[in-house]
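> example.struct
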């Protein structure tokens, strides 16, 4: 992504980092600081991310926690959740009415976020019949998403032999998202994790009798519900 991301894009990214699911989960106590993780996800420098975090703090959208970590304030979370809902409804508009693939819709929704007013988004929601999920399986309602997080695991965290159903696809890596669709690793698909070998960067899954090897990155980006 290019430099120059909006406040809403930063808030959306911090929102994802705030809830413990899959790719957004800090990896241990030595995990990188928030500015580094935001910078990585948005494709900007850490300095740029740090400056925006200071701005968000000054505007009352972010506050510092006990360990100086950046946390969304009530106002910041409310705004971030509106951004998330808008993004997911735009994705459904693009797939359901305009013929975009799921992967294409994610990219276009990023570009169109500021185009639609709140009133327009409510009309889109109504015209779509109040869809429950975006094309990649993420709940449109952030409250539903947060409640559901505890029921899901990244495929990479499962024990071999576990049967599971794909519920959500990681979105922040566009190439990986395209690959999921190319491989028909989509929400609702059932699979079995047959072998896990992180050291070799190989996870073997079985889909309808078809065995295939996928990378750890792919396995970490498939959020599943164990059977």
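> example.seq
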């Amino acid at each position: 992504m290019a430099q120059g991301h909006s406040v809403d894009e930063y808030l959306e990214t911090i929102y994802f980092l705030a809830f413990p699911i899959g790719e957004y989960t800090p990896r241990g106590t030595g995990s990188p600081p928030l500015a580094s993780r935001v910078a990585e996800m948005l494709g900007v420098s850490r300095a740029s991310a740090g400056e925006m975090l200071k701005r968000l703090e000054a505007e009352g959208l972010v506050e510092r926690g006990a360990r100086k970590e950046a946390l969304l304030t009530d106002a910041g979370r409310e705004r971030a959740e509106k951004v998330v809902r808008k993004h997911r409804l735009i994705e459904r508009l693009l797939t359901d009415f305009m013929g975009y693939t799921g992967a294409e819709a994610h990219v276009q929704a990023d570009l169109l976020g500021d185009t639609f007013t709140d009133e327009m988004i409510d009309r889109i929601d109504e015209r779509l019949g109040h869809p429950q999920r975006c094309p990649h399986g993420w709940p449109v309602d952030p409250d539903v998403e947060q409640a559901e997080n505890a029921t899901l695991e990244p495929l990479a965290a499962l024990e071999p032999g576990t049967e599971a159903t794909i519920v959500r696809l990681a979105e922040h890596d566009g190439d990986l998202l395209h690959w999921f669709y190319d491989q028909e690793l989509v929400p609702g698909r059932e699979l079995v994790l047959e072998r896990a070998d992180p050291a070799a960067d190989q996870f073997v899954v079985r889909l309808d009798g078809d065995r295939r090897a996928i990378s750890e990155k792919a396995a970490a980006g498939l959020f599943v519900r164990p059977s």
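> remarks
The chain has three domains: 7-72, 82-149, 153-226.
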